[in-house]
Design a protein that fits this description.
6 strands, Rossmann fold, 9 helices, alpha/beta, globular, 6-stranded mixed sheet
Length: about 250
């Protein structure tokens, strides 16, 4: 049996401001830094050890991982950066406040942009200064995206899983992946063979480890969050209500 641990990065500054982030490389908030430390502490107390870690190209995952590993007592653990674990590219929505966007376009439209399996948000212009083709990080990437659906994200996450992650799991390595809400949702769909409808309603909160026990044939035997029900439900509730126009709701 192999162990796969996935963690959504701690709260970022744009999570705090409730903005669409996507591939914009924003840092963790103070709360996000603490969430990362808490995740590492929880894994250490639960007796989990890691052989290798994967992160995306974005600093909010690498910073989360570094803080976690410090708490686990293994700051020099080998790690692999892979752009295919990046967050879904939110196109022209990147930088916009989710609630304000919902007030303008309606909650139904914003929910479709956020959660539709195959619907892409409005595309980012090719000459936009934040387009990935202008970023040296992605200079070797052919046709970087202007916008992505969850289906698009799933395609690249599947390639990463098949080419980089699963061979290490088959070799009995204990793997930690620190990535993003949508790239991890894509991975969960792949691991658990969830339907399009099931994955659209699956929420992954920031900074709470999700543990998979996987057999030698890469079948999931067991999956659980490393948090009590109250903490988990509160964190999921925050994710669910990020684009609500109800101003009385407490969202991050």
């Amino acid at each position: 049996m192999s162990t796969l641990i996935i963690v959504r990065h701690g709260q970022s500054t744009w999570n705090l401001e409730n903005r669409f982030t996507g591939w914009i490389d924003v840092p963790l908030s103070k709360q996000g830094e603490q969430e990362a430390r808490d995740a590492g502490t929880a894994l250490r107390k639960a007796g989990h050890s890691i052989d290798i870690a994967f992160v995306s190209y974005l600093q909010r995952t690498s910073h989360t991982l570094a803080l976690m590993l410090n708490e686990m007592g293994c700051p020099d653990l080998p790690r692999i950066r892979d752009w295919r674990l990046n967050e879904r590219h939110y196109g022209a929505l990147q930088g916009l406040n989710k609630k304000e966007t919902a007030n303008i376009h309606g909650e139904k439209q914003v929910l479709e942009w956020r959660r539709s399996f195959s619907k892409r948000p409005p595309e980012l212009a090719d000459d936009h200064p934040s387009h990935p083709q202008s970023d040296p990080l992605y200079q070797d990437l052919d046709n970087p995206p202007n916008a992505e659906s969850l289906s698009d994200t799933l395609k690249r996450v599947r390639r990463c899983w098949r080419e980089a992650i699963s061979p290490l799991l088959v070799s009995d390595n204990r793997i930690l992946i620190v990535a993003h809400g949508n790239s991890l949702r894509a991975l969960v769909k792949l691991l658990e063979d969830l339907s399009k409808e099931e994955i659209l309603n699956f929420n992954i909160p920031t900074g709470i480890p999700m543990i998979y026990e996987i057999d030698k044939n890469l079948r999931v035997l067991h999956r659980y969050f490393l948090a009590d029900d109250a903490k988990l439900n509160a964190a999921i509730h925050e994710v669910e209500n990020q684009a609500s126009t109800d101003r009385d709701k407490n969202i991050c």
